[in-house]
């Protein structure tokens, strides 16, 4: 008769050994505790409202309409222009005055690419103070 073992063979262990997990966690804890004091916190110098040198003497506003047409708003006068001519017209209005600010306002449906093209043409013309006008949604 063949002999069969009833329960005397090896049994599978259904428990999870936690010792290796605890060892790894303790090593990581020690590494973080040793390296944390060595990390120097970096300081970021963010601009604040009070740090502005002075308000601009003159503000030139470039408005980009829904159909991507450009218009210049200077001293209450509106003048339409094209992307090719906007930098020369702004440069002519700015002249030698370094304290003139240029603000770009665009409709929300205008492609971001159009705004970047206007900013790029102004930068190539040497306009230093260029900003974007934002309006918060209600």
How many extended strands?
Answer: 5
Which whole number gives the mean pLDDT? 81
CATH hierarchy, class of the domain at 55-132: Alpha Beta
Strand order within the widest sheet? Answer: 3-2-1-4-5
What is the radius of gyration computed over CA atoms, rounded to a whole number of angstroms?
33 Å
End-to-end distance: 89 Å
Structure overview:
This protein is an alpha/beta fold. The protein has a domain at 55-132: Nucleotidyltransferase, domain 5, CATH 3.30.420. It contains 3 helices and 5 strands. It has helices at residues 19-35, 86-94, 112-124; strands at residues 58-64, 70-74, 77-81, 100-106, 130-132. The protein has a 5-stranded mixed sheet with strand order 3-2-1-4-5, covered by helices on one side. α2 crosses α3 (112-124). The longest helix has 17 residues, at 19-35. It is elongated, with a radius of gyration of 33 Å. It starts with 18 loop residues before the first helix and ends in a 6-residue tail after the last strand.
Search tags:
five-stranded mixed beta sheet; alpha/beta; Nucleotidyltransferase, domain 5; 138 residues; 5 strands; 3 helices
């Amino acid at each position: 008769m063949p002999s069969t073992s009833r329960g005397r063979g090896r049994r599978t262990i259904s428990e999870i050994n936690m010792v290796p997990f605890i060892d790894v966690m303790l090593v990581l804890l020690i590494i973080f505790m040793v390296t944390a004091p060595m990390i120097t916190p970096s300081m970021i110098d963010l601009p604040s409202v009070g740090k502005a040198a002075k308000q601009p003497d003159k503000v030139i506003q470039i408005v980009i309409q829904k159909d991507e047409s450009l218009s210049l708003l200077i001293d209450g006068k509106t003048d339409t222009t094209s992307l090719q001519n906007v930098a020369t017209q702004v440069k002519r209005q700015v002249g030698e005055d370094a304290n003139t600010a240029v603000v770009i306002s665009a409709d929300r449906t205008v492609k971001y690419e159009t705004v970047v093209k206007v900013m790029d043409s102004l930068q190539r013309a040497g306009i230093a103070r260029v900003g974007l006008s934002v309006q918060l949604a209600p």
